[in-house]
Automatic annotation (TrEMBL), chains A, B, C, D, E, F:
One Pfam family hit: ECH_1
Family: Belongs to the enoyl-CoA hydratase/isomerase family.
Name the record gives this protein: Delta(3,5)-Delta(2,4)-dienoyl-CoA isomerase, mitochondrial
Keywords: Acetylation, Fatty acid metabolism, Isomerase, Lipid metabolism, Peroxisome
CDD domains: crotonase-like (cd06558)
PANTHER family associated with the record: DELTA(3,5)-DELTA(2,4)-DIENOYL-COA ISOMERASE, MITOCHONDRIAL, ENOYL-COA HYDRATASE
UniProt pathway annotation: Lipid metabolism; fatty acid beta-oxidation
Compartment list: Peroxisome
């Protein structure tokens, strides 16, 4: 049985037909799921809890309402407080300290998605601007609907995207010219282009179909050995940031424990018996 | 008002209809823009100056004449002097020192394009061989015309490309097999293939259309906050070479100063007032 | 004249029409070329020898029989011995030591393909599962036939792929979402998809046509200066794992010796004389 | 005025004669300050709060009671629960996941000392075993009394030190042979040896004198510009883990904001006027 | 019972009074233990075998005869063959390939000492020149006798030390000025200086006393849990080459298996019962 | 014959009794050799020229006048212009860009000493504050006189040292606690302490004796093969910033050219003939 999840800006559901899958939804549809500080702090809590919840093996992340996955930062809320508002009595160096702390904490909330031990599939639709890109590049797999409108919006409000897009997008999409173009121009791009460059893996008819597909993929992944799946996520993320030699060694050390799982024999036996294996919780 | 630029092998123009955009052209059309040492030394000067010229916010780089962006190294000129010519009285270790100094200096001239704080868009056409690839991978965005003929030509003259292609191309194009194939075979590839693998972002009818498109994109980028644009270029290049964690931290430190720009409020206000923002020089 | 190669599980041939090309074939067609320990140890020998054989300038790797390049690990053989079988009297920490040694040695046998100084082209067909992916990502270029069926199969037997796929695939294919999807779902993918994401460079009608194309490409590469070709492979692999700055410096140091080859003048002269250059052995 | 600090296992005091200095003491003297889980979780809270408390500019960390700074892990408490105790129904791979989460969280609590933006001076005396080394290598400066008895004790209880000693000690003490010897032999070493190899900066007569010296040094540091001091700590830690080139660039970016402090002119003016400068809070 | 070791240039003994300790001696006293190729190839075999021999938990490495640990490369033997001798018909680039292969293989033989899973203590006396430094920096701990005469001799024969000294010495001794001075001047330094800068851990009266002390230290280390000892060596070497953050994570992953050893409870129980623990083989 | 050197703030001499040695002196004794911008720009020129001057094989750097090697930045000059002075009409983000460019250029001038291919020995005396530390950590070897007074002075003027000390000092001195203490406290330390921690290699009676000793050491180094000496400097600096594995490989590639020098046989022959070898210029 999954833990009890009760949050203010996020819903967490466990669809009956998707064993071991958690469906997280950004739940501020009336504001097009725009984020303010309390939301990203809460989001970190959500993914930190799911990371260690042994009833969860895969996660889908979507946005409530038909209009937007998220339009990004709620600029109005941001301008009414927080480090971007005026603290006129501080010198620029002191203001920089406050800004840095703020940015690093904000980044950490997004990184909670990457740090989550379970694979996360982002199912996006409608406006998916700014923070939507930061957030989804911290996820493992991205799907979207035909009506999606993506943009790395930050240069249009006078800043370099600082919550993850600039660090992660070049490692998610192997087309550095395209990454630079969309980050420097802030132009909108749609589903087809996102698919072509590899930002998303597939495109679906609408929001509902995208979420359904994400749940289906999550269910497939959740049916595999959780030892194998979580090891695979971890090692792929490590390898992205290290040389092949360091990646191989880390894999060897990781698997020296992981290979001692009962899941290997469970999987092999099920294979021979042509039935679905059952794996212990993790 | 932009600084005065007067060079021998390069023209630098400031098209009236493209505020804050510099158009740099390799200007040796009669030799298909082939490079010799004085040219790359001058090119470093061009981009070093543009990097700090506050009247410039984006740069287009093209080649004069209809035939070629550049055919690469002027082999004839190279063979008549320089470290590849015979210094028969030096032992191989001493010759190696001279060659290394020469290569590192040559590389540094190309890196001046990457180091330039303003985004650089390469607009290529016709023969774009050898050095053309080194040079354009140091640019931020690559466009080309239909008639372009690319090749990583170096193995055909008995050497491994050493001015940047082998270091940068695998990070510009996320298709390592293709990178190896074109680098090992030296075969020609055209616009369509370049687009498919992500080496260029778009293809245009001819040289003029390519340059026009590059200028248009540069003009768009130059209309954004220069604080945001230049920060975005810098952080993307840093992130390419570091782990995500190091990328995030560098971004946080960078933005602790950059977020104190007046451009954020200028951009936000213009957004509310539906007018084009004006940004101070940088 | 090439060295004499006589192996048990691999054939090594030198096609007359492909000078300087070695054709290595996995030779256990009756078991769909499934691997067990003696095979990967032998494979390391094959590639270590070819690496220093001066009669060899490019290598094609294929699988015997119509059904499979390789179906991966011979699970039956693996379960009858080796570290995955039960050593019930060891505590988990000690068992981990044995597993780690085993994995690191296994990885090293695959890395022999990457370490081989000559370019290796993998020509794949039919079932190409698990180890097929590990193996081919250690090669330089991948080609396949229409009937190929790829899968990163490991999660289906309860483990994270540990022989190289997770470390190398994200650096071979610049589409991190796709890499995660196929590694987490273990689903089959075919030739067309492999081509689209850049896992293979081209697709051919059948096994024979794929091998023919691989031999043709190998022959082309083998006709170039071996100093240039081997330097290109080495520098590209180094650059993949280092920053651009480190890549440039390494290239400069490497080429300070390599540029002193006679191949440069041989190539230049042949170019002027419109004839095929001949290069000394290496 | 400093924030209110009320903790269970740690005391936090603000000595009147040491402006801007916090004195943190491990407060479990009856058990020789041995640690159990609640303590290290609390310690993370202490240093996280101090890190952002603008009334604090330097920190001294000591242990209550005459006998020990800390004897390390409270093995008894550890064996009665937590991941080292038996969860006999889990397979080794699942147990490994629990152990890893536990170790990483424990490490993070120690890293809170390193992450704390203010310099931390460890004042050690008596038994300073195991965790004492992990903890003090995360501090910035180490002082000790003559009666100190240090040991990297972990191999004596059958494990490799995993909370930081093995990662940090080689970077704190530039004598790799000595580091290996004390880590592999678990032997006791005293104040004189610690001073000779550079593990501590100075040795004092007894616990009281050590703490007094630490407070004096902390007071000196706290009298400097907090912008300068905190920048210095941050850049030194960054430089330890990066190349000189990366260190220089990070410093340049960091200081582009930090140099805009009013502290520079305050410091210069005070220098001319021969009086003590006052710096704004940070 | 230890495996049978029978080598030509090395003796391997198992002193009765030092359980689990192997004593390796370079055995070419008549030539002051100078090395030629067959010797370093054999040395790699010795340490590769010892690395996996479960009867061995610590190793002492010394040189036979009173005069020298080793005088380094046998220059005479080296000049009579091998890649340094003249292959006058090869161009410098081709010669470079042969030299590089040769150097990398030679390095790998020395690295076998570092790669060996068991701690290695070098006990040095008399002439300990050139290769002696390369070799001993690959060991974990260095001891020497009063009569030792060290030198990084390579610049005196016209080359930069390439078998490990230049890569490892700066990480063994935290005094970069001293490292540069001895490497650039090739001057002799003695036991006292070596002790002062931390190159050796202790100095003994003569060869016999040094070996005795090394065996005693090895015996102490061999009495500890082999899981703990070998993990400590591995993690310290990894940490030397990585950031603290990467070191901590690797440690966490490593220990997730290693903490499941029976040695922890064996050690704890023995501690309570005041008796010497016994540990299973590894 | 050495090139002609004529500079404004530096003298460059070639002592007759020290063949191949250049003696560079900071020549502003009346201002205690305090630096302003024109000086560090000139210093870069000096070392860039010496780096490629084949008549120079080793360099000594000292300060004119009895009082100081250098007291560091000429604060008065700095406050009258440059980026630290007020540009009140720029926002903090724009000011940051100017500061960053300024710092990076300043750093690059100091790095010219490290980048210089020939070993540089700093001979220090009297006041050696702030920039003196930045500068001397970029040198290879540091000597000083008894009267020296060192300080990492920057925190006392409200800033974190940004021209190299914080990046290089932790890699020059293997005592991270001491480095932090002197950097955070800005306290003076003398010759004896500098020697004890390894910041300097030796201490001499006075300025003259220090310079004499530096020239003697430089003369010794200059008598060795320049191929060997310059390779040793380069590889040691590379190794400082890379893993042992990367260090070994770089060494192998470097030496594949360097070992083809005639210096090896010249050195060996001279050794046999008991005479001083002569080496070709480099």
């Amino acid at each position: 049985m999954a833990q009890n999840y009760s949050f203010k800006y996020f819903t967490v559901q466990f669809p009956a037909e998707s064993p071991y899958v958690a469906h997280v939804e950004i739940n501020r549809a009336d504001k097009m799921n725009a984020f303010f500080e309390a939301m990203w702090l809460e989001m970190r809590q959500v993914f930190t809890q799911l990371s260690e919840d042994s009833s969860v093996r895969a996660i889908v992340l979507s946005g409530a309402g038909e209009k937007a996955f998220t339009t990004g930062l709620d600029v109005k809320a941001a301008s009414q407080g927080g480090p971007l508002s005026s603290d006129s009595n501080l010198d620029p160096a002191r203001k920089a300290v406050h800004l840095r702390r703020h940015v690093l904490e904000f980044q950490d909330c997004i990184t909670a998605v990457e740090r989550c031990e379970k694979p996360v599939i982002a199912a996006m639709h409608g406006f998916s601007l700014g923070l939507a890109i930061d957030l989804s590049t911290a996820a493992d797999i991205r799907l979207c609907s035909k009506d999606v409108r993506f943009a790395v919006k930050e240069v249009d409000i006078g800043l370099a995207a600082d919550i993850g897009t600039l660090s992660r997008l070049p490692k998610v999409v192997g087309n550095f010219g395209w990454v630079k173009e969309v980050a420097l121009s802030a132009r909108i791009f749609g589903a087809e282009e996102a698919l072509r460059v590899g930002f998303v893996s597939s495109v679906y008819e609408n929001r509902a179909a995208t979420i359904a597909a994400a749940l289906k993929l999550a269910t497939l992944i959740a049916s595999k050995s959780p030892v194998a799946v979580q090891g695979t996520k971890e090692i792929l993320n490590w390898s992205r940031d290290h040389s092949v030699q360091d990646g191989l060694r880390y894999t060897g050390v990781w698997n020296s424990a992981a290979l001692q799982t009962g899941d290997v024999s469970a999987a092999l036996l099920s294979g021979l018996q042509k039935r679905t294996p059952t794996f212990e919780k993790l």
